[in-house]
Amino acid sequence: xxxxxxxxxxxxxxxxxxxxxxxxxxxxxxxxxxxxxxxxxxxxxxxxxxxxxxxxxxxxxxxxx
Length: 65
What we know:
The protein has 65 residues and is mostly helical. Helices cover 80% and strands 0% of the residues. The chain has one domain (3-63).
């Protein structure tokens, strides 16, 4: 095995953990935002007003859309 082959194998084995890290990070982010949206939706309008938010703004505030 020469150096070029070794570098390709090392690069490939590094790509899998990087990919899994990115995927798991996105899953954690999605779960966290989904939970926040559900919790905000569960509040009554008076409590939402107390924190300066309207029910119609929840999705945009959580997801940034």
